[in-house]
Design brief:
By secondary structure, the chain is mainly α. It is built from 2 helices and no strands.
Length: 41
């Protein structure tokens, strides 16, 4: 069983931790692209 997550709260936390939008992109997009082999869009 998975626990419930509040996505809005989680994205707010990331926004507070990584104030720069470029850094947020690296954290949320570039890392997943490299880790899972996604194709960059």
């Amino acid at each position: 069983m998975f626990r419930g997550e509040d996505e809005g709260r989680n994205f707010t936390l990331v926004k507070n931790w990584a104030l720069d939008s470029g850094l947020r992109h690296k954290l949320l997009v570039d890392n997943a692209t490299k880790l899972f082999g996604f194709t960059a869009v």
